[in-house]
Structure formats: C-alpha cells, structure tokens
Amino acid sequence: MNNKTSASLGLANMWVAFIFFAVAAVLGLYQTVERMDIIPGLKSPELYFASVSTHGVLMGFVLTTFFVMGFGYYAASTSLKQEIWSKPFAWFGFWLSLIGVLIAAVPLLTGNASVLYTFYPPLMAHPAFYIGATLLVVGSWVWCLQMVMMMSSWKKANPGETVPLVMYGTTANAILWFITSLGVASEVLFQLIPWSLGIIDTVDVGLARTLFSWTLHAIVYFWLFPAYIALYTLVPAAAGGRVFSDQMGRVAFILLLLFSVPIGFHHLYMDPFQAAGWKFLHMTGTFMVSVPTLLTGFTVIASLEVAGRLRGGKGLFGWIGALPWNNPIVLAALLALLMLTFGGFGGMINASYSMNAMVHNTQWITGHFHLIFAGTTVIMYFGTAYYLWPKMSGKALYSTKLAVYQLWFWFIGMLVLTLPWHQLGIAGQPRRISSTPYDESLVQSWITAEYAMIAGGLVLVVSALMLVYNLFKTHGNAQAETNLEVEYAESLHSTARMPKLMNSFGFWVALIVIYMVASYGYPILQFFLMETFGTVPWSI
Amino acid sequence: MQDPLKAICDDDLERRWLWISLLLAGGMGFLLGMYALKSNLHPPSNVETIDSSRLHLTEEFAEDNLGVKENEDGSLTVTMVAARYGFFPPVIEVPTDTPVKFRVASADVLHGFHVPYTNAATMIVPGYVSEVSTSFPTAGTYSFLCNEYCGLGHDSMWSRLTVVNKTDGGDK
Questions:
Q1: Is B110 close to A122, i.e. CB distance below 8 A?
Q2: Which of A151, A392, B146, B165 could form a disulfide with A171 if both were Cys (CB 3.0 to 4.6 A apart)?
Q3: Which range is least confidently modeled, A64-68, A367-371, B36-40, B80-84?
Q4: How near does any CA of chain A get to the CA of B93, in Å?
Q5: B100-106 and B76-83: which strand pairing?
Q6: Are A452 and B167 in contact (CB under 8 A)?
Q7: Does the structure show a pLDDT above 50 at B36?
C-alpha cells in the first residue's frame, strides 16, 4: 500500500529538513575557516556567532525534528497499513513548525539571537527567537499525538496482535520526545519568554540550566531513534536478510525511553548549584543508557551477518564482503556503525564524572557529538532518504552511484573533521571561539589539526550538496520506481508470543515518571527552597 | 539456577551479549565511581548562592580581597571574579604540589575557566559561587581560558596562571 497523504507528508517534512540542512552545512564550512584566523578579512565575531547559532538550531532542531516527523508519518501508515489519524491536524503541525522556524530565522540571521542553540541565559535574544522555537516544538507535539493515536487505534482494530517493530520504535520516540521537550518548554515558557518581553526582570540561571539539562541529553536520542529504527527494520531487509531479534529491538527501544531523560546532569558536571551526589546518580544512568546501544550493535551486526551468509559469504569475515556495499542504505548502516564505535569510546570519557573535567567545553565535545550525531545519525537519515524517496515520489532514484559516493564523502569528511577535534580538545582548545588570540605555544600546537578541520568541512559541504541534488533530480526522473512497497525486515525469532510489556507503553511511562521525580524532583525544588538571586538580561 | 534474562531473550548468544553489555556498563560506572570516591575526585559541585550584581559589596569578592591567600593548614584559596572579558586578578601564581581551592563568582553572564592539560576547570554561573579544588604537580606558565561563550568578546577572555616550584617559591 502506498498511502498518498503520508507520502506527501513524508516528502514535505523531509524536504524542509534537507534544505535547511544544506544551508547549515555551508555555514559549518565558513565557521571552520573563520575560527582559524587564516583569512584576516573574514574575521568577525558578530557573523561567526550568528552563524554558529544558526548552524546549531538548523542541524539540531530543524533537520532532526522535520526528518523524524516525515519518517514517522510514512513509517506509521506503511507499517500499520492505515491512514494518518488526522490529515488536517498533521498538516497543521507541519505548518506551525515551519512558521516557527521562519520566525526564529529572522533574529538568528540578523545577529539578534546569537545565544547559541542552548539559549545561554542571561544572554538574551530577541523574543521572536524563543517564540519561533516554541512553535516548532508545539508543532512537533502534534506529531507525537498522531503517532500515539495511530498505534492505539491499530491495537484496538487488531486485538492480541504484535505492533510492528518500526511502529513500536516510532511511538517510543514520540513519547520520549514529548517527555523530553517538557524541560526546555518550561524554561522557555516560564522564564525566557516573559523575561525577554520584560514581564519579569530576572531569571535564575541555575534553574534555567537545570531545566535545559532535562531536555539536552534525551533530545539526542530523539534524533538517534529513527536511525536505530532504520537499522533494525529497513537495513536487514535491504541487505537481503532478517532482523536477528525483533524482541531485542523492543528491549533496546524501551531502555532508551527509560534511561535517556533522567540522566541530563552529565551536562552539568562542571556547574555549581547541583550537589555531587545528584551528579553521581545521573552518571550511573548515563552508563546504563549505553546498554541499548551495545545491544543494537549486536543485533544489527548479527542481522547483517545473516544477510551476508544468505548471499553466499563464507568464513569468519567473508560475509562482510558479501554484503551489498553499493546499496545506499546498507552502506550508510555500515559507515554509521563504524562512526558509532569511535564516538562511543569518546562518550565514555565525557560520561565519566571525574575525567570529564579535562575535556569539558573543549573541542573534544564538538568532535564527540559530530561523530555520533552528524556522523552516525545523519548518515542514516541519508540512507533512509535514498531508500524512501523512490517509494514516496514514485520515481526511481536519480543516481545510486552518486548516492554511494556521497555517503563515502560524508564518512571520510566526518572523520577528517572530528578525529583532529578530539586532539584539539585534549590540547585545551575551547569549543565556542571565533579566533585564537591565546599564548603562542598553545596556538601553535593546534595548527595541524585545524587545517584538517577545514579539509573535512570542505568534503562535507560537497557531500551535502550531492545529497540535495540527487533527491531533487529524483523528482524529475523519467524512470518510474517499480517497487513501491516498503519492506520491513522479518524477525529470525518468532514474534507471535510477544509479552504484553513489549507491546505497550503504559507501564514504562509510569516508571519514567517515578525515575524523573527521583532524579529531578529535589534538584529542581531546591531553587524554590533556598534564597536565590536572579540575573538581569545581558546583550551579546 | 535459571538465567533471569531468559524471560526477555530466547537466543543464547544474544543473552550472553546482553550480560556482557550490562557488566561492561555497570563495571565502568562502578570503577569510575569507586575511583572518584577513593581519590576524592569530584566535579565542582558547590551549592552556594550570591547576588552577582552586588559582588563589590560582599567582603569576599570585593576587589581588594581577591587573589591568592594561604590558609592555616598550608593550602591556598584563590578568590576570583570573572566578568566580561577578563579574570580578576589577571595574574595568579601558586606553588607546585599544594592544594589550591578556587572560589569564583561571575559579575555578569555565564563564564567558565579551564587550565589546559589539567583538571582545573569549572563553569561560572551568575547567582552562584563556583568552587574547585586541585593541585598542580608541574611548574610552568599555563593559560587560563574562559571556556564558555559569554558574548562577542569571549575569545579574548583569558589570563595566565604561573606554577612555581615549591622550593623556589621562598617563604610565600
């Protein structure tokens, strides 16, 4: 079944995602050159920080939210074989989010919201920035509700049956995002918007940062979720195999849902105003959240091995060569897993309560999240887009060869960009700087890595434009796509007897509420129990 | 005894991997936790409020009282103010192998400090007093960098920390 509404919703959302992505990629290249001080005429902190803020908002909020929504609508209707719950409401959410982005873009591009995508009070942006960002989030809540309603109406219509894995994961992400976004929503609605409009005079920066940390870690899992879902459900089928275990996929999704929100304090390790014990508690949760990723690594690699052996691969490693490396979504998955491995090692350092002090706010962190997010996650967005575009548009992909080159470019560019960043971080380079007017000996030790950074940025921009070109040309392709069916991988192990807990969310949501009260209750309450001093707004 | 994970996982190989993952994550958390507790290595986590707009009226952070002070037990306390775009006092000298406690307050926005190649680092948040304890085993001149975006002049917010050999430092 090819549902027309969900295909247009999928395409509209994903086009918004990729157009803004391409703009942000170009800004990224400019930033690598500007911060190194090699072209004197280019130097401008005003432009640099406006660019960094825009790059962060577009990549972190716009590319991700729209891609997740587009993927969710299309995956829900194709896997459940069901119409979108409410079509007008879905389009309303899309337009609300898009209008929000356009409203926020004005202050961002004119340098009136250079407060970075993490908001950073008491630096104050133009109110339009906070209001636009809020509309984007509210629009995405429409999507959350649609996913939950689609899963529950399907369950009512199919009593006793197992919800398809792709839909189970997508609904888990919708619930995750709703819970996650409540932190930043409270910060923006109760603190930043009234403050920027002059209704209140001061904000408590400690409270604002605590609320933001609620969102700041779990949001990366909101971004990562569709990548994992594609790894479990689309990649094994595209590689010619089966998913090793449907049930373990559910376990991984549940663990991500449970452990990703109540651990945000690892972003506050170096902040005063929260006691060490709370940070320690959040650290243990941070290590627990690596379990679903380790599990995903196993299941996906095992699924690929099944595919490789079915394709005639022999021996301990022979199956790897037998995989279809020229199939974009399979190639994307293999490269994503490699980058996830590198990035995961770095993550262990940042996650550690004591070692983090050496790398906090250095370029190491930028390297880490570019590997995991811009690397692993975004390359899976590309692979998924190459797979879904022909099905959604009805036209064959313009060029598979171009897609394969594009993915390799992205992988190479990302490694050339991020591995030197880790080195820069250990050598003490702060992450958010527009120039390096520091001690000569320190600056000299950074030079080689910085040239690598520019080279990496250049390769990445070329790759980004190749993606957009290929997708654009697909719409005008004279050749129609012959196979419009989305093939979700079947499970090697039977899914007929699925435990109720792995086919529903009620129990898990209750558990998250308890865990959140335990890990965030007192840390938030304390600001109302002690005498605190708010801070007046400061311009950049 | 039956494997408790059998309830959620039928496949022997995968269940073994699940155990390894749990032990790996639990083991890392446990080791790092024990290490931090044993060597008393905690992130800066002082819960203490202050009115950042009136620092000059407090005794501790008034301009004349900033800088390095020796405590009765021989350890040092360094009191500093971070304000756009500098650290006050701008030059700090401490001896090697001596416990140093930095107490820092912001007069305006968010700041941070980091001394590269050491674990001397903290965020500096308006409304709160940051406290970080460390010691410096190697003598030399270190950069003392603001590592948190604090406005358009953020790049130029840095100063120096000099660590002198304890024996050369005289009776300081």
A1: yes
A2: A151
A3: B36-40
A4: 17
A5: parallel
A6: no
A7: yes
Backbone angles phi, psi at B3, to 5 degrees: -65, 120
Answer whether A62's CB lies under 8 Å from A17's CB.
Answer: yes
Tell me what pLDDT residue B35 has: 86
The pTM assigned to this predicted structure is 0.96
Task: Using CB atoms, pick whichever of A120, A353, A502 lies closest to residue B32.
Answer: A353
* Residue B111 phi, psi dihedral angles, 5° rounding: -135, 180
Contact list in A for residue B143 (CB cut-off 8 A) is: 428, 438-439, 442
Kindly indicate the confidence band of residue B46, based on its pLDDT and cuts at 50, 70 and 90: very high
**Inter-chain residue contact A123 with B151, CB threshold 8 Å:** yes
pLDDT band at B172 (very low <50, low <70, confident <90, very high): very low
Q: Which two tokens stand for residue A394?
A: 């009805």
Structure tokens at A391: 């099905």
Smallest Cβ–Cβ distance between A438 and the set B110, B130, B158 belongs to B158
Cis preceding-peptide flag for B44 (omega within 30 of 0): no
Beta carbons of B147 and A290 less than 8 Å apart:
no
Nearest-by-CA chain B residue for A440: B143
Q: Give the tokens for residue A327.
A: 């199939």
> Read out DSSP for A141-182?
HHHHHHHHHHHHHHHHHSTTPPPPHHHHHHHHHHHHHHHHHH
A375 vs A301: CA distance, rounded Å: 18
Position B44 scores a pLDDT of 92
How many other CB atoms are found less than 10 A from the CB of residue A301? 16
Q: What is the ipTM of this complex?
A: 0.93
Q: Which sign does the torsion angle of CA A93, A98, A104, A108 carry?
A: positive
**Are B125 and A209 inside 8 Å of each other by CB?**
yes
What span, in angstroms and rounded, lies between the C-alpha atoms of A301 and A304? 5
Chain B residue with minimal CA distance to A289?
B25
| Backbone φ, ψ for residue A340 (5° rounding) | -65, -35
What is the per-residue pLDDT for A2? 52
Residues 38-57 of chain A whose Cβ lies under 8 A from any Cβ of chain B: 45-46, 49
Using left for φ > 0, alpha for ψ between -120 and 50, and beta otherwise, residue A285 falls in: alpha
Question: Rounded to an integer, what distance in angstroms lies between the CA atom of residue A92 and that of residue A214?
Answer: 27
* Cβ neighbours of B47 in A, within 8 Å: 272-275, 526, 530
b/e code B58-70 from CB counts within 10 Å (16+ = b): eeebeeeebebee
